[in-house]
Amino acid sequence: MKWRQHHLVTSEKLYDLGMNLMDVALSSDKPPTSWRVQTAFRDGLIIALLALIPLRRRTLEALRIGKQLVRSGEYWLLEIPAEDVKTKRPLDYPLSPELSRRIDVYVNQIRSRTADADTHDYLWVSSRGRPLRGQLIYNAVRRRTRKALGFPINLHRFRLAAATFWSMQDPANVRGAKDLLGHASFATTEKYYIMAQSRLAGRALARAIDALRTERPQH
Questions:
Q1: What CATH number corresponds to the domain at position 142?
Q2: Is residue 2 part of a domain?
Q3: d(CA 184, CA 50)
Q4: How many domains does the chain have?
Q5: Which of 125, 137, 139, 195 has the fewest Cβ atoms nearer than 10 Å?
Q6: What is the residue range of 139's domain?
Q7: Beta strand pairing status for 75-80 and 91-94?
Q8: What angle do CA 201, 203, 205 make, to 5 degrees?
């Protein structure tokens, strides 16, 4: 049952969860200096970012403003050097206008008002202003997803969700998921494609059987 629950979670659902967390934090009657607002908005941004760009924990932890996260005109983009990537291949991701606006809010209104956050350039900060390490990011994401969904989603599940969502929505171009996930070859990504296609086939069979049963005369 738990396995099924995890595989029902899509990137779209996780993205909506992250955006909702940020919206709720901003609509709170508490000020941006409140640790509840700061951590809720931060965690929402992490979840929304991972839903679009499912980075590995080490790469996510290493994001620094002006280094891996850079401004390009009106928008932000990720320029991740090879040394921060498991496969030792540099990654480059432009961020959407919507996510870029949320990063602006986080950097200018949330992070900037966190005590001692100005002592370093790491993107993710704790309520005490220290760089947020990988295990704490992992724990925060699991805690937020457990509260919202009834079961926790770990960081690796974001990668599975992204590959599965892509293979179901755009199977003709599913090889692009290899580059999204930073895989060295499509072989690593292919298992997600196969899993997604088998689920689609199963659903099609179930619909066909249901239709046949509906059309068959009842005795």
A1: 1.10.443.10
A2: no
A3: 20
A4: 1
A5: 139
A6: 9-151
A7: antiparallel
A8: 70
Q: CB of 81 within 8 A of CB of 68?
A: yes
Spatial contact of 68 and 77, defined as CB atoms under 8 Å apart: no
Mean pLDDT, the chain, whole residue set: 77
Q: Which residues pair with 91 in a beta bridge?
A: 80
Share of the chain above pLDDT 70, in %: 69
Report pTM.
0.75
Mean per-residue pLDDT pooled into runs of 10, the chain (219 residues): 56 90 94 92 96 87 95 89 76 86 96 94 95 96 95 85 54 42 43 43 42 54
- The answer to whether residue 114 is domain-embedded is yes
Q: Which amino acid is at 168?
A: M
Give the pLDDT of residue 191. 47
Q: Report the alpha-carbon distance of residue 167 to residue 154 in Å, rounded.
A: 21
DSSP state of 131: B
State the Cα–Cα distance between residues 65 and 42, nearest whole angstrom: 14
Using the CB atoms, write b or e for 178-213: b if 16+ within 10 Å: bebbbbeeeeebbebbebbeeeeeeeeeeeeeeeee
Tokens at 183, concatenated? 């895989």
CA-nearest of 94, 48, 50 to 73 is 94
**Distance between CA atoms of 149 and 127, rounded to whole angstroms?**
24
pLDDT at position 156 is: 81
Closest by CA to 49, choosing from 98, 8, 84, 113, is: 98
Helix axes 97-105, 11-27, angle to 10 degrees: 40
* AA letter at 6: H
